[in-house]
Amino acid sequence: MNINKKKNFLQGIFALMVMLFITQTPVLAAEVTKQAAAPEGFKAVLTVIPLIVILILLFKKVDMLVAGLIGGVMAMIIGGITLAQANDFFLKAIPSMLTITVPIINSAVAMAVFKSGGYTSALTLVRRGIKGRVEFFAAFIVILQAAATYMSGIGGGSAMVIAPLAFAAVGAIPELIAAMAIAAAVSFTTSPASLESGVVSQLGNIPVAQYVDSMRIYWIGFVILAIIIGYYGAKKRNAIFTGEENEEVKNMTNKELFKSTIPVIFLLFAVIFGPFVNKAVGVPILSPLVYTVVTVALIFICTKFSLSESVNAMVDGSNYILVKLFSVGIFLAFINMIGETGAFTAIVSVAKLAPPALVVPATVLAGFLVGVPAGAYVGSVLTLVLPVAVSLGFTPMELGFVAMGVGLGSQMSFVNITMQALSSGFQIPIIDVVKGNTKWVGGCVALLLIISFIF
C-alpha cells in the first residue's frame, strides 16, 4: 500500500512538472511583476486553488516544502510564471529570511544559557525558597517557560528542558501544562528571537523591534493569565512536591545556584529592557553585540562551562533557528509565486466585503483554525495567512494578533513540537495534553478575539 501511495505521489509530481514545461513561455528573461493584478471571475477562483492544496497537504502532515513545491508548480502553470521568474523568487526569498539577524543572535545566546544549566538552577533555587508552597512553584515554572521562550524564540526547546524538571517536582498538573503551552505560544509569536517574529517582520515590512514593542503589553497580559492558570491548578489540586531535587544541583549551595542563574537574569533583562535603557542613555549599551559578549562571558564566569564550551554552546545554539529560517525561506518562495498570480489580491477583494470591524477578528480566528491541524509549521502558516492581512492594511499590532491566534492554535495540535515536548516531559499521552489545553487555550482565543475587535 505504501509503495502504491509513493508511486501515485511521484506520478502526480511528474505530471505537474510536465505541464509546467509545456506551459513555459519562450521569454526566459522576463522580469518578475512588481504587483499582481487583481484576477476576476473564474480566474480569481483558480488562483486560490494552490493555497487550498497546500493547506490540505499540511493538514495531512505532508512536509511543508513538498506541499509548497506542489502549490508553487500549480501557481506557475495557472499564472504563466516562467522558470526564470520562479528562480528569481527562490533566490530572493531565502536570503530575505536569513538576514533577520537579531532573532538569530538572541536564539543562539539563549540556547547557550539553556545548556549551561541556568534554568535548572533557577527552578531549584525557587523550590528551596518557597518552603513547600507548590502553587508558587507552579507559577514560577510558567514564568520560566515564558521567559525562556521569549529569549530563545523556541517554545519546544524551552519545554524540553523545563517540563521534565516540573514533572519530577510536582507531577502532571493539567492546568500547569496548559499554562506552559499558552505561555510558550504567546512568547514565540512575539519574541525578538523567534522565527515567527521574523516572518511577521519580513511580510509586514516592519522592523522586528517595532513589532515586538507593539506586542509587548499583550505578551505580558497573556503571560500573567497563564501564571494565574498554573497557580490555580496547583492550588485547586492541593499539589505537593513529588520528587527530590535534580541530581545535578542537589549538592550546590544557594549561593552557587544563584551565581549560575546570573546569565539568565542578565539576558532576560537585556532582551526585554535593553531598548528602554538604550533610549534613556542615548547610547546602545545593551545592543545585541554587547549582551551577546557579556552573556557568553557570564556563562564562563558563573557556570562550569569553560570559555570554549561557552562560545561553542552559543554557535551550536544557532542551528535550530538557521535551519528553520532556511526552510521557511524556500517555502516563502513558493508562496510568493502564488501571490504573483493574484491569489492574495482575490482573497482581499472578498474580505473587503465584510464589515471593517470584523475583518481583524475573522483573520485571527482563521489563523487559529489553521494552526490547530498545521501546528508543526507555525512559521509556514503565517506565510499563508499574513499576506492577506498585510494587503488589508493591518497594523503591526493587528498582525501580532493574527500571529498569536496561529500560535494558540498550535497548542491544540498533535504535531506541534511544544506539545510533543510537554507530552514527553510530563509523561502523558499527547491526547491528554490536547484535552487538558482545550478549555484554557479556547478561553485565551476568545479573549484574543475580543481584544482584536476592540483595538
Structure, briefly:
This protein has 455 residues and is mostly helical. It has helices at 2-23, 41-59, 64-79, 83-98, 101-115, 118-129, 134-152, 155-170, 174-188, 195-204, 208-236, 254-281, 288-302, 307-317, 319-340, 343-351, 356-371, 378-391, 396-410, 417-425, 430-454.
Explain what the structure shows.
Helices cover 78% and strands 0% of the residues. The chain is built from 21 helices and no strands. The protein has 2 domains: 197 residues, no CATH class; 217 residues, no CATH class. Helix 5 packs parallel to helix 13 and helix 9 crosses helix 21. By secondary structure, it is mainly alpha-helical. Keywords: Membrane, Signal, Transmembrane, Transmembrane helix. It comes from Clostridium mobile.
Please write out the topology.
Blueprint: H1 2-23, H2 41-59, H3 64-79, H4 83-98, H5 101-115, H6 118-129, H7 134-152, H8 155-170, H9 174-188, H10 195-204, H11 208-236, H12 254-281, H13 288-302, H14 307-317, H15 319-340, H16 343-351, H17 356-371, H18 378-391, H19 396-410, H20 417-425, H21 430-454
Oligomer: single chain
Instruction: Estimate the global geometry from the Cα principal axes.
Output: globular
Helix content: over 70%
Cα distance, first to last residue? 52 Å
Q: Give the integer mean of the pLDDT values.
A: 85
Structural class estimated from helices and strands: mainly alpha
- How large a portion of the residues is in β-strands, by DSSP E? under 5%
* Poorly predicted runs: 21-35
**Series of H and E elements:** HHHHHHHHHHHHHHHHHHHHH
Tell me the number of strands: 0
Question: What radius of gyration results from the CA coordinates?
Answer: 23 Å
Tally of distinct domains = 2
Helix run count:
21
Largest beta-sheet details: none
